[in-house]
Prior knowledge:
The structure is a homotetramer. By secondary structure, chain A is mainly alpha-helical. In chain A, 65% of the residues lie in helices and 0% in strands. Chain A is elongated, with a radius of gyration of 19 Å. Chains in contact: A-B, C-D. At the C-D interface, helix 8 and helix 9 of C face helix 8 and helix 9 of D.
Amino acid sequence: MPRPPGHGPGFEVRRQKIIDTAAELFARQGYAATSVNDLGRAVGLAKGALYYYIDSKENLLIEIQSRVMAPLLSRAREIAALDADPLVRLRLLSESLLTIIFRRLDHIWVYEHDYRSLTGDYLQTLLGQRAEFERLVRGLLTKAMERGSFRAVDPHVATLQFLNLHNHTYQWVKPDGHWDAAYLSRAYCDTLLRGFGAPGAALPDVEEAAEAFKRDRPDLPLDPEAEWRSASVAS
Amino acid sequence: MPRPPGHGPGFEVRRQKIIDTAAELFARQGYAATSVNDLGRAVGLAKGALYYYIDSKENLLIEIQSRVMAPLLSRAREIAALDADPLVRLRLLSESLLTIIFRRLDHIWVYEHDYRSLTGDYLQTLLGQRAEFERLVRGLLTKAMERGSFRAVDPHVATLQFLNLHNHTYQWVKPDGHWDAAYLSRAYCDTLLRGFGAPGAALPDVEEAAEAFKRDRPDLPLDPEAEWRSASVAS
Amino acid sequence: MPRPPGHGPGFEVRRQKIIDTAAELFARQGYAATSVNDLGRAVGLAKGALYYYIDSKENLLIEIQSRVMAPLLSRAREIAALDADPLVRLRLLSESLLTIIFRRLDHIWVYEHDYRSLTGDYLQTLLGQRAEFERLVRGLLTKAMERGSFRAVDPHVATLQFLNLHNHTYQWVKPDGHWDAAYLSRAYCDTLLRGFGAPGAALPDVEEAAEAFKRDRPDLPLDPEAEWRSASVAS
Amino acid sequence: MPRPPGHGPGFEVRRQKIIDTAAELFARQGYAATSVNDLGRAVGLAKGALYYYIDSKENLLIEIQSRVMAPLLSRAREIAALDADPLVRLRLLSESLLTIIFRRLDHIWVYEHDYRSLTGDYLQTLLGQRAEFERLVRGLLTKAMERGSFRAVDPHVATLQFLNLHNHTYQWVKPDGHWDAAYLSRAYCDTLLRGFGAPGAALPDVEEAAEAFKRDRPDLPLDPEAEWRSASVAS
DNA sequence: CATGAATGAGCTTTCATTCAT
DNA sequence: AATGAATGAAAGCTCATTCAT
């Protein structure tokens, strides 16, 4: 997103801080119920000054959506491409998704709640990205069925169960509670893998395999460096 | 909810129509983003005339929430009190919940999305009712564990999985699609009962038992007569 | 004020009741802050039915003003024309004015407070009537000076003192308190007659003379029959 | 009343101008009958911009009431505490009150007419301040009776006469007429002191004594510097 | 006589956005 | 880089009034 030329070094830092704060407010009060005034007060900047950093209120919403979508999709692509049992990949994908939810709960609230306030092109882009994520999940589930690990169920319905189970978590999770992403991911996958599992099939030790991957690549659930690289995600 | 005295016979009919329309608009655009003007245009009434039927915009939200909560909770209580295997009761509860979601998708959107726009007493009441529903689910899950049908898992986490799976459905379901509430309920419970099931336990034929109940009481998932009786739910 | 022809016998009764109630509400809440709805509720009539009896909200204000002005001015003319010492006539006029204030405090509130909400012709008429009342008072005061009962003071300023003293009473008087119109009138006139009195002049026993008049004509302060004859007052 | 931080130098000036204009409009049309739109038009500002300066319409009313009450009560306290004959103090208090009425006639209109539109805490505060003022007057009248300067009359009724006489002046006075506060005060006190005076008592030369005080303290009737300092009045 | 229903203008207030400085 | 000031549109809601029945 190109800016007018000649910005000082602090520009981007402050800009990111503003988006952070916006996510917090939008999550707490809703996008429509949060005023630009509220945001200005929260970041300690007069309304006029805010517009030096942001283009519009809707643009903030877009940025927040991107911040969720970009790392999520980039990690999902990577995990789906791993050379590992589909069950293990599902387990890793689950933890990656839950990790983002735990780390940036407010962004997720906005992502889940207010994406329908978006209009025009960006909404289309976003829906496309959501569809891609869904396809990645479905691909793994289908592979597990083909291998005989899972019963033959409608892959679409199975995918939606996977997504329901994970995506609704933001509604009640508390980031500083006594559960973490790894714990919940294990519990969810326990249910799903058994639930989808073919009657006779002996499921591999998914947990151990996932552990091994995470030992090698601690950034696998969520890259901490590029965490909020809001670079647009090529679809 | 008694109205000021002296309203003609058409009053209540039109009033219900207005609430219906409001649910539709709120679902599509969000509560905060829908103006009373929009609603007036949609029902073909000037803004002023609208207020002849409604008390306030927030009151519409309350009515919509009640229309979801009242039948849901009343049915849930009844099902939980049935003399049947907890697994069967879970299956019936699942279908009841999904039936409401299918029948009044727009109400559910509002119910799930905009309950945080409520203020004051009613919000407290609503949260209390949601908590009661959650307790009913947890009670059945716990009983299934005590009987040895389910593995010993954290009942709280199990409850949340049940709710995640069902409650997120509104996000993608299409009421006129090729799935119905019974089909989805079967799929969800297939996953959950197997997923939670104790390794050696032979699960009973839940589907057949549930069918029997529904044959006897076709209104069990959702009473069609009193469907939207928005009578307040005694807590 | 001619009505559409063919009104039943109860019409005028109910109409008067409505004006009474309006005066009560206007006095309590102010003319602008009282809605036609409030009035309807107070008289137990739907808004639509009200307009069968009244022409408009402003018209109510006019009627209330008339109900004060008509008896006040009619009595004032009569008293001013009496064959009696000007001091006695002032005393009788004072009591007449205070009697109206006590009897219809709410009308007086409206009269004093909201006459400026009137527009057009009627406001002019009303101001003319107020001026006439003022002239009657001034006439009596002037006569008292000419006779040497009063010091020579600016008659205009003296008149305004008389009016200030009486007309502001509505602000704090309580009709069911332990003072009545006669008591206050005596107190006010005590102050005024002594205050205006010429240094050497021996003031007559005004109280006794006034008593005599009232014995003969108990209706002198305020005609109870024609009390609210809202017939328009010829100016 | 500190404003949100960071207002330019012109802010307070314009703010005061707006309150002035509001007083003018409220006086002419009444508080309830004056719209924020009217006010905006009168000060040449769009409705939205007005709210940059004011908090609410009711707040304007509060400020106007304060502008009357604060200087009035502060001066009244000071005068009541003077070491002088109660009659002289009454004379000074009278002139102080009339001076405020002359100087800010529109504020007084609002003060007298629309105080009942106030709600909540501020109304209570205001009524308390009005009661205090009344107590100060009554105190002086009582002292004059104790000294034998005045006849023994009901102090409450005497107080109300003092207040009626002065407070109703706003109804007809014209600030640019040929009378001023000093003239009217002299006339009113002439009437009251003689009217209340004990039969045999030789009243001191109140006018001369009052003149002496005013020569020493030209700001005694009304401090011109802090004239509209709307600082809250400690009760 | 009286009602329920409707309207359109107006109310107070908040909003996202702009811009000269 | 940031501010104070301004705008015009729109928000939720109330109002006086009308009228078919």
